[in-house]
Each structure stands twice: as structure tokens, then as C-alpha cells.
Fold this sequence. Notes:
Blueprint: H1 18-29, E1 34-38, H2 45-56, E2 60-64, H3 65-72, H4 77-91, H5 96-107, E3 112-115, E4 118-121, H6 127-140, E5 145-150, H7 162-172, E6 176-182, H8 185-192, E7 207-210, H9 216-230, H10 236-246, H11 250-262, H12 267-292, H13 294-304, H14 310-321, H15 326-338, E8 343-345, E9 348-350, H16 354-361
Helix pairs in contact: 1-2, 9-10, 9-11, 11-12, 12-13, 12-16, 13-14, 13-16
Amino acid sequence: MLFDLQPKRRREDLYDREEELREFFEAVELGETLVLLLGIRRLGKSSLLNVALSESEKPFSKIDVRSLYFTHGSIPQELLARKLLEGLLKSLKGTDKVRVELMKALSRIKGVRVSGLQVEFDEKPDLAELLEKLDSWAEKTERRVIIAFDEAQYLRLSGIRYDGLIAYAVDNLPNLTFVLTGSEVGMLHDFIGLDNPKKPLFGRYAREITLKRFSREQSRDFLRRGFDELGVKVQEEEIERVVERLDGIVGWLTLYGYLRGIRKLSEKDALDELFERAKALVLDEISTLTRYSTRYWYILKAISLGNDSWSSIKEYVEFKAGKINDAKFSGLLKNLVKYGYLEKTEDGYSIPDPVVKEVIKK
Ligand code: ADP
Ligand code: MG
């Protein structure tokens, strides 16, 4: 169902993204070891990743790094190792023979105990060694193993040098493919350091698949199909109005479809509730930043009100929050771009998500 709010898992529930899926499979078939799925929040990265993994027919493990980080407050190696191996075993659930082989291979690693789909460690696991063992198993059984970190930039906050570990694996373990998704594209780039000469992955090739928002036509078609699926009749004029307001962000279109088509709210109530929920979500998402400096908030506010140049934004922020020196101000702007809340083009700064913009403007 197109209007299901959960990240999609099955191809039939995923609207389009054919080209992105094709690229993903191509990268895996070619034996590429690093794939990045990029794009701002709610464009469908997790959905694309789920569908790609479920259709790839390779053993895989997917780790939701953001939720792991927020549940545990950090990401210790042991936890990551356990999630990784348990995910892998689970992905092989339907294919008993292969799973038994993998369980045997894992049991031969010192300190690792496997029972059913559960993995425990007698001593602190060495992740590099684990990955090496997985790589040899993959090579021997001619099965590429896919390891996916959803919202991988959160690995950065764990205090452990996971960037170095991933770099090592990408360079030295040819039978593993790492897939990293990131809504904070700049943070993810920083973390893996593809363009930082001081980092281990500098200058390496990565397959970058960047999700774009739907075109107007796609957005309209998405809504029509979703409503058709539910047997709900919606006027063309309503579809026009909604697409005009939500643009091509599939997450918002899906939420609208859910509120209107499943919850059966009127157009007005559905939009009101959507913006209500969006407000709570967005405030929560930027709270880590705004807690650090209220100026982040004023920058976003300034831009939502139509200021797009460096100096007009700064003027607004200084009016609200007092003097700030140029370098510091530029630093804040840069961070907002890194975190995906702002886009910078030759026309100046803008908020890429119209719903986020509207929520901040109010
Ligand atoms: P992201 O990981 O980029 O934040 P999600 O995959 O969580 O995005 O998707 C956000 C919302 O949009 C979810 O409700 C999901 O079901 C829906 N969605 C995302 N991509 C698609 C798609 N291609 N077709 C249908 N629904 C989608
Ligand atoms: Mg996601």
C-alpha cells in the first residue's frame, strides 16, 4: 500500500525509484564495496534500502544506526557486532543450509556463541576480525555479503573510530559491500572522508545514489494511485492543491494520503494535522542543533521569511540574538547545510523541504 507510513519493504509498495534500484543492483553485481544512498529526510532512503536488500538475494545485515544511537546513547563495538551478525542470520532465514554454514563459520571465531538467531560474545569482539571472517566466508561460498548502515553519520557520535574500520573493510575486504545512507549528507561525507586528504578513504571511489524529490507529475500520479488503491475518490483540484503545498517530498505525500485516505479526514483537517505533526517532528529533529545555539533557529527563521543572502540572514540573526562575528556566523550556516536543513546555490540559501519551511515560518 502506497500510503503505509512505515518505510516500505516490498517493491510493489514502492513508487518508482526504478533507476535508483537499478544502480544499486549494478553496484553490487560489479562487486563495488561502497555504496552511498543520499538525500534529505523523508525522500525514501530507508524504503529504497529495504526494498533493494530484500530483492538482492544476497545475505545482508541492515543496522538502523540512528535508532541504535538514541536507544543506547552510544554504539559500543559489541552491540554493533551483535546486531550485524544477528541481522545476517535473519536475512538467511528462508535458506536453512546457508544459515547453518554461516552459523558454523561464526562459531569457529573465538569468543562467539551462536544459538538460533542469537549471537553472544564471551569476550569483547574484534570487529575488524569479524569482518575478515565474514569476507572469507563470502569468498568461499561465492556470496557477496551486504552490510548496510541506515543513517550512518550517527556512527560518528559513538566515540569509536568506525570510519577507519569501514575504510579498512572497503579497501581490503572485496567480498563485502557497505551501504551507507545519510540525510545529513555533509556529515556523512565528513565521516567517511572521501574528500578529506587526512582521512583513510580520501579519493576512493564510491557509488553515490542521490534520491531526488518527485516531479509535480510524479507527485500527482503517486497520490492518484494511492487513493485508487484505497478506492477513495479525490478531486483533481485537491490533488493539485496538495502537490502545490507539499511539493515532491514522498514522506509528506504519504502522510497526507494516510490522513485523507485511511483516516478519512477532510482535505483541510488532513493538512492541518499534517502540519501539526510536521511541526513536532521538525522541532524534535533540529532540537539537537538549537539546544547548542539558538542562532540556528534564527537562521532558519530568517530564510523561511524570504532572506536568502548571507548578509540579509546575518542581519536578521543579529537583530534577534545580538552581534556575532563573521566567521562564527559562517560556521553555523555551513553546519546547517551539512545537516541537510539548508541548501546553498548561486541564488543563495534555501530550505529544501517546503513543509519544513512553512513550519519554521509560523
Ligand atoms: P527517509 O529514510 O529518506 O527519511 P523513508 O524511507 O522513511 O524516508 O520514507 C518516508 C515516508 O515516505 C514513509 O512513510 C515511506 O513509507 C514513504 N515512502 C518513501 N519512499 C516511498 C516510495 N518510493 N513509494 C511510496 N512510499 C514511499
Ligand atoms: Mg530513513
